[in-house]
Amino acid sequence: MIGRLNHVALAVPDLAAASERYRDALGAKVSQPQALPEHGVTVVFVELDNTKIELLEPLGEDSPIAAFLAKNPKGGMHHVCYETSDLRAARDRLTATGARVLGDGEPKIGAHGKPVIFLHPSDLFGTLTELEEV
Amino acid sequence: MIGRLNHVALAVPDLAAASERYRDALGAKVSQPQALPEHGVTVVFVELDNTKIELLEPLGEDSPIAAFLAKNPKGGMHHVCYETSDLRAARDRLTATGARVLGDGEPKIGAHGKPVIFLHPSDLFGTLTELEEV
């Protein structure tokens, strides 16, 4: 049901510093920052050979990563995102086994312009998990 | 310098339950558990189309993930691992920019039988990061 790992999202308090470090210290290819005000984050994509890392910095009020950074001021691993070809079928299978979808349970349009759901981290052993339809 | 994402490691308190959930709820292909006593973990590989997730459960005394699970009893995202073709060159570049290598700074043989280093999470914005030579 799940296919590729679409991305790993890392929350950072300072996107410019993080971007520079991933480029200079790790020698990674990093994108320019992209503000996504409707999602409450600014993102830098770290392009790897097989997937990508998304460095996220809070943007505006009510950023969905603000509480995480308040708890983890240095930053940290925020979520993983898997791809699936049929999000509603995936959602139904998950909820049938007792896993909870955050929010009202319906897919939303995510940061890549595609339908996504987030699963409750407690139902996946502490890991916040996003599914994206591709 | 860094190439593929080799794996994302998720620490879990109950490997059998996690393995079942990734298989049944997410429809993922999961391996049999493999005990790695010299690394203090039992691991289940979740095979994705482009990379893998490693579910880690503590094994024996002094497991390197015991403290993490004491702090995060439900489990959580533990580290990411990137591949590199020349680990010593990568290490030298990292330390030249001020990033610290855990331990004595020399590569060790990791859980896949290949040389690895771990970088101090504080130097990568709270994310514990492994580099593996492939």
TrEMBL record, chains A, B:
Transmembrane segments: none annotated. Pfam families: Glyoxalase_4 (PF13669). Coiled coil: none annotated. GO terms for biological process: L-methylmalonyl-CoA metabolic process. GO terms for molecular function: lyase activity; metal ion binding; methylmalonyl-CoA epimerase activity. CDD domains: MMCE. It comes from Fulvimarina pelagi HTCC2506. It comes from the Bacteria. This is methylmalonyl-CoA epimerase. Keywords: Cobalt, Isomerase, Lyase, Metal-binding. Residues 4-134 form the VOC domain. It catalyses: (R)-methylmalonyl-CoA = (S)-methylmalonyl-CoA. Belongs to the methylmalonyl-CoA epimerase family. The keyword Ion transport does not apply. Its EC number is 5.1.99.1.
